[in-house]
UniProtKB/TrEMBL annotation, chains A, B, C, D:
Cofactor requirements of the protein: Zn(2+)
Pfam family membership, one: BKACE
InterPro entries per UniProt: Aldolase_TIM, BKACE
Protein name (record): 3-keto-5-aminohexanoate cleavage protein
Alphabetical UniProt keywords: Metal-binding, Transferase, Zinc
Organism name: Haloglomus irregulare
Amino acid sequence: MAIEQESVKGNDPDKAIISASLTGALTTRDQCEAIPYTPEEIAEDAAAARENGAAVAHIHARTENGSPTFDTDIYQRIYEEVRERTDVLINFSTGAMHEPVESRLEYIEAVEPDIAALNMGSMNYAKYSENRDDFVFDMVFENPFNEIRDFLTTMRENGVKPELECFDTGHVGNIRPFVQNGELEAPINFSLVMGVLGGIPPTVENLAHQVRQLPDDATWQVIGISREQWQLVSAALAMGGNIRVGLEDNFYLPSGEMSTNPELVAKAAEMTRNVGREPATPAEAAELMCIEPPHL
Amino acid sequence: MAIEQESVKGNDPDKAIISASLTGALTTRDQCEAIPYTPEEIAEDAAAARENGAAVAHIHARTENGSPTFDTDIYQRIYEEVRERTDVLINFSTGAMHEPVESRLEYIEAVEPDIAALNMGSMNYAKYSENRDDFVFDMVFENPFNEIRDFLTTMRENGVKPELECFDTGHVGNIRPFVQNGELEAPINFSLVMGVLGGIPPTVENLAHQVRQLPDDATWQVIGISREQWQLVSAALAMGGNIRVGLEDNFYLPSGEMSTNPELVAKAAEMTRNVGREPATPAEAAELMCIEPPHL
Amino acid sequence: MAIEQESVKGNDPDKAIISASLTGALTTRDQCEAIPYTPEEIAEDAAAARENGAAVAHIHARTENGSPTFDTDIYQRIYEEVRERTDVLINFSTGAMHEPVESRLEYIEAVEPDIAALNMGSMNYAKYSENRDDFVFDMVFENPFNEIRDFLTTMRENGVKPELECFDTGHVGNIRPFVQNGELEAPINFSLVMGVLGGIPPTVENLAHQVRQLPDDATWQVIGISREQWQLVSAALAMGGNIRVGLEDNFYLPSGEMSTNPELVAKAAEMTRNVGREPATPAEAAELMCIEPPHL
Amino acid sequence: MAIEQESVKGNDPDKAIISASLTGALTTRDQCEAIPYTPEEIAEDAAAARENGAAVAHIHARTENGSPTFDTDIYQRIYEEVRERTDVLINFSTGAMHEPVESRLEYIEAVEPDIAALNMGSMNYAKYSENRDDFVFDMVFENPFNEIRDFLTTMRENGVKPELECFDTGHVGNIRPFVQNGELEAPINFSLVMGVLGGIPPTVENLAHQVRQLPDDATWQVIGISREQWQLVSAALAMGGNIRVGLEDNFYLPSGEMSTNPELVAKAAEMTRNVGREPATPAEAAELMCIEPPHL
Ligand SMILES: [Zn+2]
Ligand SMILES: [Zn+2]
Ligand SMILES: [Zn+2]
Ligand SMILES: [Zn+2]
């Protein structure tokens, strides 16, 4: 059904893996009421997202009042609550600006999610307000090679599939040492993140270029941050890519209406079918990424 | 709303022009019942397509039994029947394999449609059957420069906007003599045709490359032939492109169901809204292409 | 030594194959005195080109007064005179505007050169004079699929390696039927021809795009027609490509001075060394292209 | 003479600006005897480089024993010694790993070189040893937006042309806020740096992509670090780019022989002529970059 095109790489041209980024770390219910905080709320959203077409739930833990937390117990409870309800693949964040690596490794080792995100390079991470001609925030997002290596080692030793988050062309190139020394095993699983000021700008041209840099058997998804998300989803689906939507990345439907995690996934599933593809099940996603299928 | 990206070129990032290719020349009601033949049938489909989001109707004339015809009277009747019912922009084909240039110029001169298609180069035009290991058809589609020049002259003299159909990278490059001598005036209006064996293969990578070759102020649409159409539509919408759908190019909805011209346009309009854009009206399309707005 | 880059494809990053296009069909000694006509003259140039770094001699036969000829005896004599003097790989043209396929197949079958060129698609083939605002020539270069197939069959049956001349993106795509039915065997050997009006324009951007379309194990060279040749040579050498120079394609050194076949090859060899690569020997070229090494 | 290609952007297709990176900060005479340390040595190399084709000298100050220094007096003496001998444009580095911004702004303000380099983003800056399976060094090169802004302001107030060093695709995108608020004025002058682990990998494909991201009127050069330099020079010259060579970036001629600044520039000038272009004079370079021509 799908175009025979190089950009499919290791993905399935007929099935698209939809990931739901349920929580994120930075936004709050003041901005968007539907963000889940507690393990139960997160698990309910995960189950509803699965129902609507998601195969993966990407999760940052929160305290009950919504602050970001790296507490292993909370991550454990999230894992259990989700798994009780649904077979969706569980993907934990490991990113943070000011949290030491050790505390971000601990819950990965203890809980062993199916997948964990891993930031593949350093960059500026900023937001600019044209009105005020000033930077709303202006940080250096530090992910040196030795930290990347520590994450890779822990994930490999614990059977956790790394999801390599690449915010720029060089971040994709940063796999080279770990391919050479065997710490990264095929099929490598990439997220091409676009739309953060400091990283690669969110254009289809740039997405196509990022995909060209990937190994032939790599799996990949696009992560579009904020308003450009739906256009990047539309392009990625055409290219044979997988996609991520959810309140971590963008609150709004294409119409501009504020939404919820299950609704955003439903729209992503509709768009998947509009290019003649079907949403992959968690079992199909697991097979493509060469990980153990989820068991309820 | 749209991404600030180079690929928008002279298009409107917020509005997508949807063209409906209602008839074509090669297919018949034996293959797809919903193909309109008579001027009245064509005009009814044009009006319904306009209702569902189309701003342009691209038309090949047919006799009552469905054969292709280059008869000026029939083209005149089509023009009148369409214009009686709707303000959609009227775009006539000029392509043919074995019809002399003169007869294809005559109806353009006589009827003066808003837009006329113009093939910008020669190529093989073939279909290969893998099962039979043979070519279903294997032609040389001849469009030498002197014929291109004749069409351009006639169109310019009659106030007809050329739509440059480019089946390969070199066809885009073939504008060079006509830009240098002033026969092509900005904004040049391109159709990037993909999916014919002999021309550029229908991949997003190739679409992106074709768009890169266009002048900065050019307007453009993608024309995807057969099954790859919806993926190319999905990619083009993300890139800021205009799109064409209709029974000339493809009979099927993304689901695989055989369809009709109005339904195909409705699906294209839905996909346009899914990237946060709106279908352009005929008046908006006319303004973008610098042509006279249609009058009922 | 060379960059690890995708564009190398099946080439050798450390060795560049230099082809010398000694004669061509269209130009005469009135335009450039150094064009060889007779088998002896051609063979002398082949030997001198080999001495200066060429691994392949690409040859069109000529009569004694310089007219193009498809005479099998002359091709046979060329083969013998060249092989008497040097181990350069012998590559015969098969292209022509108005010569029937049969006569172009005959000398391939009879003489069995190491390599033969094969045009992979149809296109306009023209030259435009800006001063006169007119086309100096304006032809349709016809190479339908059934003729391509005939050439492929004859070459395969006679142990002649095809060199696929691709003047546009679609021409590369035209390999699809012949890959599917097994008539084209890896490593496929491509020439990316650039600089003819009607085909793909001669830019580095376009060269890079053409290379991206090739199979991973394909060998490739760039053929730049006229003044743009040296820039395309410079880019191709950087990309890991092979190169062609010679009086068929361009008479002039980069300085603008009219030159000879051996001098043009010497300049190409110097440029090869300037990117840290070495000219391949005929034996090395044969191994890369999977053909029998030449025997004196 | 040059190809009409988009990649030329604001450069001169007929003239290439050669920059000589004479010193750098990290390497020593133990590694390469010919590195100049003192103002006099640097000025002698600048004059010899100018003689051989360089239009710009890019300089990091050193103490007498070769350590990097940010001392304003030394930068002042370098400026005077160079200007006494030659009209080459003077370009000062502003980059450093652990030196505060203030001390890097001071000598720019005090000495007012023609041009000053400015790093446009953060990234990992590392070197990996395959033999030892370890990182030889592994740093985060921090250049947050507020520091970039400080440099831009100081340069603009002192009539110093910024040379934007971009190590990745996102770094090119980082101009956006400064274009919007007018702090960056056209023609923007880019250096596309390739070959540092952590930044964009040094392929022609990546170079072409970086160039595509630039504004149409931007000037640009490629800076290839270490062995890939000559290939990137070869590609950039073909694309209409400017080039940088010198002991800061690479000690070796394409043959592998260790070299000197004047010899490296002579090779770059030879390669420039091999694509039919000429080295620009300092006055021609100044005009292209819209800066005051140098006065002796
Ligand atoms: Zn996250
Ligand atoms: Zn048509
Ligand atoms: Zn030839
Ligand atoms: Zn420097």
